[in-house]
Every structure is written in structure tokens, then in C-alpha cells.
């Protein structure tokens, strides 16, 4: 709906979905100024459908969005609205669009009778900070952020100031120095923000105190009124005085009433009615009660006084920083404890007095800790700080909370005796308990704990190793529209219950936005590190309603695994990923996993609930029907604190089924020939530059084939293009590198492409009394004699033999008797002695991979009929290759599983490599260490291979690379007699019942080729075809 037509052709309108495309263009045009990414129309619509904005104002010019301003309730503090986002398209800088939006937002705040408007920016925002100040914002001095507050709505809605503010134009007549630094006038520990207006008709000053967020001084042409305290820091539990000064400037008698306004921290009772001819100061007593410490950036406890002048009343406020003579902070005990363990209780102390003091602490006997020295002392200068470490023996585990006696001795022999409460969770294996102090609720289970802050009901969790983890869940919100009431409301009741191996904390709230609904937030912590969180509603009225729940959380990800577009994507690039970098529509499953270095964290939720990504945070939305006079529970959200140590484990927990065995994809990918490593010159090759980040820009691509630049072109993101047919002369083996340059970085993608040609020679001969099957592809030759041994007994590359073998004999060697050597694949717990009793036959075969590339080779079929455990098992080993390609693929198909599910047994590929004069050598490249070389030695060596490796031998220039499935375990074993290379893996059972072992590949190359360049080979899959 059109709201106003102001400067030039700029109009301010409310958001509607029809403007989403233009808003996306505005953000994209502004990304250089903001540092943000690319936005789409779909993302804009999705964001606003889950937004908690009260209003979203758009600046329009000729049907284009050129400015944006959100307005919502401020979650971090009371009594304020908030501008979460304000932007002006860069080509409209200097055209007063930002001013229009700010003034429009202020007008809405005034209309809604809210006293304040807040926003955040950054200190270096030199264009915007002067504008903010000119529109009435004050920059609050804080180290951690740049927070601004605007009290103009309080001024414009104030009945006492109304006769005076009505005589000025608050924007044009305001006197303000626009400096690029924090604002504030300092006085007695207070910070005041002063508004001044002046014109020919009147002068007006209104001062607001920083921590109380309220009016503290007024000066008009008729009077001055000022509220004052002797100091900002006041001792709680004591009486103090507040002064109200009134000066009459009018020459006419003023009728004044000053009355008390008690609250939960300040108790006072006074009322003065008097006439003021010149000036009057009233001094009034109040008592400051004990309570939680105020939080920086939020409204402090206040002393409020109502003042009426000639019947027009307003409220004056000053914030106070309540202190005890001594502040004591108990530091968390991070260790896992047991009864009898030695530990220390560390206390940080602060002297809040204006004089030095000797602090003596007396620690009581208790059931949890036996203090070695139950009393200690420390000298602190005025306003000084220090700490003490108190050794203790653990008597039992639980939440230690005790009152200690503090004797505060001053230099004039005065002594103050006060009680302070110290507390700490003493956690250990098998122990579950609840704790509460003045700031937080806690539940503990084993080495894990949950903390809920009383100030805003924010939840964090932690472990004994690093304390609290980089994960935060905010107070849940009900809607729609979503209300952030629980970020400020206090629970009316708390409960804890124990269930088997878990502990549950329940917080009950009475909704103010929905007065007939009671909200219960439950958090369940399991001993394994699983957290379950859910919300229950109780409807106390007869009507039925559909209620939406939004859970919002923040997670500082590290090596993130996320199911997107039906793939599992790992984000492990140097530039950090935030939720806003991921398109919500791309989320294809109900989980994610962050492999944090110290403690992996996973999150999963009920399928069907909607996960929305926004900026630095995530929203999970669900909906339930709430019947009259009934209750309902929303689906829970689960968090794993190290309980699941891999993304596959977490995926299985989230889906309730076996892991999908999906292959990982990188966040940025380049697919040449659709990731088919085998090229066909009769068909055009394609290139696809893809990204799972929604802000990825197009890139400038350059293709190098065997070291020569052959192709340069812009590569559009997520759009496949064809390579020109004449791009290069393809060799049999092609090392391909693609350089992609974007506005952020330069990336390199390496792969190897193969061009097979010619024929494969198949030969069947008889030698040494055995029928031998032989395959020669022009580069490699391999042979099998099925009635001698169920495997290959020879593998040559460029005429060089790589296998150690005993053909045609069976001999004892090292640990084996009989020993044949060579290569074979098979099940566990089936020795060579037993295997030789069984029947194996061979056939020449042709099979296709998942790209329909044709491979040829030998199939060895083994049927087990004698072995007690494996009787009935039938399996086929495949050894296949392509013409003139230096690759041998090996895999197993299980034709009859002998009644076994065959998902747990670890099958093997076993290779015995050349020893003696032509002994093979292992070269291992360790990512976190130096490169290593292992040769046959006098001692046994057993090496687990996780990083890149290759094998050489003196008789060949080639290097042998073994490529296995990512889940395979690869081991290199050597002693004086043998070199053995073994890979093991479980079989996979497809939905159609097909059971197979993932393929392995032996690749020969004169260069050492990093495994990532051969990733497309390693990911090949085979399916059987009918000849």
C-alpha cells in the first residue's frame, strides 16, 4: 500500500512479495558495499515469510526498490523497536533515501507508542553514522559492537514536553555535532545523551541516561528538572538517596508533584506536592534490593520518579549498577571428577569499595568438597581485582552451592561481614544433576552440561574439555507473526526430572502474546551427549488454533557436512560458510554435521519441518493444531555433542535407516565430461562449474591439457557449457588442470582424462599343466589360472612384473602355508588352505560402468561347498581394463550370500608385491608431516595408509597407485620375505538385492598423481551387462 510521496520521485511502501525480484536486484547491486553475496527472488520471499518484522519499508523509484528498512521488536532489551537491516542502493547514495527510510521508521515507532528505536552498524560506516546521529541516534560506547539508540519517540510522546517540542521541527531545529565517535557526557560515573533544539520560538534540552534508557534532565524556557544520584555504582542491600531538582525559569509559580515509582529492585515511598517560585531540591530515600547483575548492552535496574508540572506528568529515570562490597565469581571446574580426586576452586574477586580492603573468606564444610584451607585472605586496592585458588578434595559429585562468609576489613578498622554464594558443577561419569545460580539454570549428565541464561532464555551446551561450544539456541517463538516474548519473559515454574540415563529441564512460561496459552520448554540431556529439545503448549480456552513454532540457533561451523540438492556436501574451504551462504530450498534432508576439531556437533530434526537459513542464523519452523482446552507438542530438535563422530552416523540417526552411502561433493566443483574420466572423441565434452553456495559468481575459466593452455571462456555457475571440438589433441592419458578466477579468489581443479583406443587381446593357453587366461590391453597384461589359485598370479605394466608369486607351485612363505602370492579378493575367515579345496572357474567378460564405458577382462567364479562357515557362498572376482589405459579395476559380486545379510563382514583385496632385487618401495605423502619412504627391512613394518601414497620398483619408471573406496581400510605390511598391500571393506547390498564390494583401481603412471586428481576414477561404479 502506498504510504507517502516525499523527496523527488521516491516513495515509501510496505513490503509485498511482488517486490521480491527488485529487492534481490537491490542487494546484488549493493554487494560490493555490503560484502554480501548474490540474492534471488525466491530467497527474498522465503526470508520474509519467516520474518518477525513488524514492518518492512521499501524506498521505490520508478518501480525499482532503491532502499530497504526493516522494523521489528528488539530482542536484546526491553522497551525498544529495532532496525535489523537498512540499505540504500549505491547509485542512490546522497539522494536522502536513507534519511527518508529512517524518518519513516521513527514515525511508525512513535505511532506505536514505543519509547526507543535501536540499530547496529560498524564503526567504519562513515557514510551512515552521521545520518544516524542527525536522525537522533546516539552511539553507545561498547568494545564489542557499534550500538545506537534513538530516544526521539520518547520525546515526541511525552506529555510534559509536548508544549515545547510542538514549537520546533525536531529534525530541522535539532543542534547536533556529528562526530565519528561514541556519544555521551560523563558525570559521576553516568553517561548522558543530550538533545538540544532551538529556534526563534523556544529552546529545549532533554537528556537521557545511558543505562536506565530514560529521561533524566529537561530544560525548557519555563523550568529545569534534573534527577541525580551520588554515584552510578551503588551497594545493594542498603539505603540510598535520589535527588530531584526543579528550577522555575518562567517567573510564574509552578505547581510540582514528585512521587515514587517502585520496581522489583528499588523500594521507595514518597510523594511531594509543592509550589516552586525559584528552585527546590527534594531528597528521597530508597532501598536497593539484591538481584542479578545487570548485563552490558541492556537496561539496568532503575530509580524512577514521576514528576508533574502544572498537571503535565512524565517519568524521570536513572540506571544504577548494583554492587556488593565484594564481587566473587566462581570459575567453572572443567575436569571430569571422581570421589577422592584433588581439584581447585578458583574465585575471582573485585573490590567495589572506594577504599582498599583486606578480604577474608571462610569456606564451610559441605558434602561435596573438603577444602584443605577453609579460610584464606587477599588484599585488594580500591576498585581492585584479584583471584584465589583453593585446593580441595572431592567428596561427592553434584552441584556445589554454598554461602561463604566474607569479612571485609578496611584501613580504619571498620569491618563489613557479608555472605556470598559460590557454586560450581562437579561433574563426572554416571552423574546427573540440576543446578541454579543467580544468572543461569544448569543440567549436567556425565561430561556434558546444558546452560540456560535467565536474562534471555538462551541455551548453550558444553563439555569438560573446552567448556561451552560455539552453538547457541535462542528462546523459541510462537506465531505467526512470531513473537520474541520468551527472550524477555521469566519462567513461572521450573522442573527437573530423571529418566533412565537422561535428565530433563522444563521451563514453564505464561504467554503474553497469547494470554490463554502456557508454554513449556523441555531440554533433555543424555549421558552420551545427545540433547533433545521440544516445546509443549497448553490451551486454556475453548477455541482451536493453528500455531507455528520457530526455533532459532547459531552455530560457528567447522568442516560442515550438509545434505543439499540430494547430495552430501562438505564445506571445508578456507573462507568460512554461514547459513546465509546456503539456499534453504537446497536442503534435501533433515540434518547437518559440523566436524569441529575438538567436539563434533550434529543437529537433526523431524522430516517435514522447514529449515530456513538467514545471515548468521538458522530457523526451524513447525506447525501444530492446538485444540480448545487441550495441549500439543511440537516435533523435537536433536543435537549431538560428540555422540556421533561422523556425518554418516548422524545421517543414520536422523533418518532412522542405514546410511545412504552417498559420495561427498565439494562446495565448489568442476565437472568435465560430467565427471566421466573416459572421453569419446566422437562426442563433445561438457564443462560444468557448480557451487552449493548461493552467492557464487561466474568465473573466468582457463583449461590446461598436459600443461598447454587450450581454452579460455567465462564459466557460468551451475550451467553446463560445451567445449569446442577442436579444443585439443587428446592423448591416451591427459592431465587436465582448470583455473577459475572469480571476484573473490582463484581456484584450480585437477583431473585425469583417458582416451582408450585399439583392442584388448584375450588369450587362453595351457602352461605348467594349468589353463591360463590372459588379458593384454597394450600397456598392462594380467593372467589367472583358476584351477591353480583363485586370483591373478601375474600383473605386468610395460612388460615389468609387479607381483610376487609362486606359480605353478604352492609354497610356505613367511606366515603363510600354502602361499601363492599374486592378487585375490575374498571373504574373511577363509584361509588359502580351505579356499584351494573349493572350485573356481574363469571366463572372459565385458561389463559397463555407470557411464556405459566398456571394460574387458577376467571373471573368476568361486563356489564354496566344503567350508563349514561359508558353505553355499558363491562370488565372482572381476579384473577388467580398457584398451591402452594403464588401469586395472578389481571388484567382487556376491552371487549367493550363504544365508548371510553380508553387510558386516570385511572382505579383502590382497596384493603381494615384488621383493628381492626388484623390491617395491612405498612412498607415503603425509598431510600433517614430511614425506616418508618405506622399503623391505629386517624388521616387520605395518603401516595404515590414509594419505596419498604410491609404490615404485627399481625395474620400472612407473609408479603404482591404489585407489579404493573412501570407506576402505588400506594396510601395507612388510617383513624380510614379503610385501603385502591389503584393502578391506564391507559389502553393500542394493535395494534390488545385488550384493557387491566397491571397486578398487590399480593405476600406473610415471608421475606421482595425487589421489584427488583421480577422484572420478575412484567413484566409478560397475553394473553387469548381458553379452
Automatic annotation (TrEMBL):
Pfam families membership: Acetyltransf_1
Residue stretches making up the N-acetyltransferase domain: 13-158
SUPFAM superfamilies: Acyl-CoA N-acyltransferases (Nat) (SSF55729)
GO MF annotation, one: acyltransferase activity, transferring groups other than amino-acyl groups
CDD domains assigned to the protein according to its UniProt record, in alphabetical order: NAT_SF
Keyword Acyltransferase: yes
InterPro entries: Acyl_CoA_acyltransferase, Bact_Acetyltransf, GNAT_dom
Entry keyword set: Acyltransferase, Transferase
PROSITE patterns according to UniProt: GNAT
Name this polypeptide is given: GNAT family N-acetyltransferase
Organism: Niallia taxi
Source taxonomy: Bacteria, Bacillati, Bacillota, Bacilli, Bacillales
Amino acid at each position: 500500500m502506498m504510504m507517502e510521496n516525499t523527496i523527488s520521485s521516491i516513495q515509501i511502501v510496505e513490503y509485498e512479495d511482488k517486490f521480491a525480484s527488485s529487492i534481490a536486484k537491490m542487494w546484488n547491486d549493493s554487494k560490493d558495499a555490503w560484502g554480501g553475496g548474490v540474492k534471488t527472488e525466491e530467497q527474498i520471499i522465503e526470508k520474509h515469510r519467516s520474518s518477525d518484522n513488524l514492518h518492512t519499508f521499501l524506498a521505490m523509484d520508478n518501480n525499482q526498490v532503491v532502499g530497504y528498512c526493516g522494523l521489528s521488536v528488539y530482542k536484546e532489551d526491553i522497551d525498544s523497536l529495532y532496525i535489523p537491516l537498512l540499505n540504500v542502493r549505491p547509485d542512490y547514495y546522497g539522494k536522502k533515501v536513507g534519511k527518508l527510510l529512517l524518518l519513516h521508521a521513527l514515525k511508525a515507532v512513535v505511532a506505536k507508542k514505543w519509547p526507543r528505536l535501536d540499530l547496529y552498524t560498524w564503526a567504519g560506516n562513515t557514510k551512515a553514522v552521521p545520518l544516524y546521529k542527525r536522525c537522533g541516534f546516539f552511539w553507545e560506547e561498547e568494545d564489542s559492537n557499534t550500538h545506537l539508540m534513538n530516544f526521539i519517540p520518547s520525546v515526541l510522546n511525552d506529555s510534559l514536553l509536548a508544549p515545547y517540542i510542538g514549537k520546533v521541527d525536531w529534525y530541522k531545529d535539532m543542534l547536533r555535532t556529528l562526530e565519528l565517535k561514541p556519544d555521551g557526557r560523563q558525570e559521576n560515573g553516568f553517561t548522558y545523551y543530550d538533545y538540544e533544539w532551538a529556534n526563534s520560538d523556544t529552546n529545549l534540552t532533554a537528556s537521557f541516561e545511558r543505562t536506565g534508557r530514560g529521561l533524566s534532565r529537561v530544560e525548557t524556557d519555563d523550568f529545569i528538572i534534573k534527577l541525580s544520584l551520588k554515584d552510578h555504582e551503588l551497594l545493594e542491600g542498603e539505603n540510598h538517596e535520589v535527588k530531584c531538582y526543579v528550577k522555575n525559569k518562567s517567573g510564574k509559580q509552578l505547581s510540582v508533584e514528585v512521587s515514587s515509582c517502585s520496581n522489583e529492585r528499588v523500594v521507595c515511598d514518597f510523594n511531594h506536592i509543592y509550589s516552586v517560585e525559584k528552585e527546590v531540591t527534594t531528597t528521597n530515600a530508597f532501598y536497593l534490593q539484591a538481584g542479578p547483575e545487570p548485563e552490558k548492552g541492556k537496561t539496568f535496574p532503575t530509580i524512577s520518579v514521576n514528576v508533574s508540572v502544572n498537571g503535565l506528568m512524565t517519568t524521570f529515570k536513572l540506571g544504577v549498577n548494583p554492587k556488593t562490597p565484594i564481587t566473587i565469581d566462581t570459575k567453572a571446574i572443567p575436569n571430569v571428577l571422581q570421589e577422592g580426586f584433588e581439584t581447585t576452586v578458583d574465585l575471582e574477586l573485585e573490590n567495589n569499595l572506594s577504599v582498599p580492603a583486606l578480604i577474608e573468606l571462610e569456606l564451610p564444610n559441605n558434602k561435596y568438597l573438603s577444602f584443605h584451607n577453609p579460610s584464606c585472605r587477599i588484599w585488594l586496592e580500591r576498585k581492585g581485582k584479584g583471584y584465589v585458588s583453593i585446593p580441595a578434595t572431592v567428596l561427592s559429585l553434584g552441584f556445589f552451592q554454598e554461602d561463604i562468609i566474607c569479612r571485609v576489613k578496611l584501613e580504619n578498622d571498620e569491618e563489613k561481614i557479608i555472605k556470598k554464594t559460590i557454586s560450581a558443577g562437579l561433574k563426572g561419569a554416571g552423574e546427573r544433576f540440576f543446578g541454579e545460580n543467580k544468572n543461569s539454570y544448569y543440567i549436567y549428565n556425565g561430561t556434558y552440561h546444558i546452560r540456560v541464561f535467565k536474562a534471555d532464555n538462551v541455551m548453550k551446551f558444553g563439555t569438560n574439555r573446552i567448556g561451552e561450544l560455539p552453538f547457541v539456541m535462542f528462546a523459541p517463538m510462537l506465531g505467526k507473526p512470531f513473537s520474541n516474548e520468551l527472550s524477555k519473559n521469566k519462567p513461572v515454574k521450573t522442573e527437573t526430572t530423571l529418566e533412565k540415563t537422561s535428565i530433563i529441564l522444563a521451563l514453564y512460561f505464561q504467554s503474553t502474546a497469547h494470554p490463554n496459552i502456557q508454554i513449556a520448554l523441555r531440554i533433555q540431556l543424555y549421558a552420551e551427549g545427545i540433547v533433545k529439545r521440544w516445546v509443549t503448549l497448553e490451551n486454556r480456552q475453548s477455541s482451536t488454533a493453528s500455531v507455528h513454532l520457530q526455533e532459532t540457533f547459531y552455530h560457528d561451523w567447522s568442516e560442515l557436512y550438509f545434505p543439499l540438492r540430494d547430495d552430501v556436501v562438505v564445506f571445508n574451504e578456507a573462507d568460512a560458510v554461514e547459513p546465509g551462504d546456503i539456499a534453504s530450498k537446497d536442503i534435501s534432508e533433515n540434518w547437518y554435521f559440523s566436524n569441529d576439531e575438538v567436539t563434533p556437533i550434529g543437529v537433526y530434526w523431524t522430516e517435514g519441518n522447514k529449515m530456513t537459513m538467514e545471515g548468521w542464523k538458522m530457523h526451524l519452523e513447525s506447525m501444530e493444531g492446538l485444540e480448545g482446552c487441550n495441549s500439543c507438542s511440537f516435533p523435537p530438535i536433536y543435537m549431538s555433542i560428540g555422540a556421533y563422530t561422523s556425518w554418516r552416523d548422524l545421517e543414520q540417526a536422523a533418518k532412522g535407516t542405514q546410511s545412504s552411502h552417498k559420495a561427498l561433493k565439494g562446495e565448489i566443483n568442476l565437472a568435465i565430461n560430467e565427471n566421466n574420466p573416459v572421453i569419446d572423441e566422437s562426442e563433445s565434452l561438457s564443462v560444468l562449474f557448480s557451487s552449493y553456495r548461493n552467492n557464487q559468481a561466474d568465473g573466468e575459466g582457463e583449461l590446461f591439457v598436459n600443461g598447454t593452455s587450450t581454452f579460455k571462456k567465462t564459466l557460468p555457475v551451475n550451467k553446463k557449457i560445451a567445449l569446442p571440438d577442436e579444443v585439443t589433441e587428446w592423448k591416451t592419458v591427459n592431465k587436465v588442470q582448470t583455473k577459475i578466477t572469480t571476484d573473490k579468489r582463484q581456484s584450480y581443479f585437477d583431473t585425469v582424462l583417458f582416451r582408450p583406443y585399439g583392442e584388448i587381446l584375450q588369450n587362453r593357453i595351457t602352461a605348467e599343466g594349468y589353463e591360463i587366461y590372459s588379458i593384454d590391453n597394450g600397456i598392462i597384461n594380467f593372467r589367472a589360472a583358476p584351477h591353480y589359485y583363485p586370483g591373478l598370479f601375474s600383473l605386468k605394466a610395460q612388460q615389468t612384473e609387479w607381483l610376487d608369486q609362486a606359480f605353478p607351485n604352492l609354497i610356505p612363505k613367511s606366515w603363510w602355508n600354502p602361499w601363492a602370492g599374486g592378487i585375490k579378493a575374498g571373504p574373511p575367515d577363509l584361509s588359502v588352505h580351505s579356499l584351494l579345496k573349493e572350485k573356481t572357474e574363469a571366463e572372459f567378460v565385458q561389463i559397463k560402468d555407470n557411464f556405459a564405458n566398456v571394460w574387458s577382462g577376467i571373471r573368476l567364479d568361486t563356489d564354496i561347498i566344503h567350508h563349514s562357515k561359508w558353505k553355499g557362498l558363491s562370488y565372482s572376482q572381476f579384473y577388467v581394463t580398457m584398451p591402452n589405459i594403464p588401469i586395472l579395476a578389481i571388484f567382487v559380486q556376491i552371487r549367493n550370500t550363504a544365508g548371510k545379510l553380508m553387510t558386516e563382514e570385511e572382505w579383502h583385496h590382497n596384493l603381494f608385491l615384488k621383493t628381492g632385487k626388484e623390491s617395491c618401495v612405498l612412498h607415503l605423502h603425509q598431510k600433517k608431516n614430511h614425506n616418508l619412504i618405506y622399503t623391505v627391512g629386517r624388521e616387520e613394518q605395518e603401516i595404515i595408509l590414509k594419505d596419498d601414497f604410491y609404490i615404485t620398483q627399481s625395474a620400472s619408471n612407473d609408479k603404482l597407485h591404489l585407489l579404493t573406496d573412501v570407506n576402505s581400510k588400506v594396510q601395507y605390511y612388510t617383513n624380510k620375505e614379503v610385501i603385502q598391500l591389503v584393502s578391506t571393506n564391507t559389502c553393500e547390498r542394493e535395494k534390488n538385492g545385488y550384493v557387491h564390494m566397491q571397486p578398487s583401481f590399480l593405476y600406473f603412471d610415471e608421475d606421482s598423481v595425487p589421489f584427488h586428481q583421480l577422484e572420478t576414477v575412484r567413484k566409478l561404479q560397475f553394473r553387469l551387462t548381458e553379452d
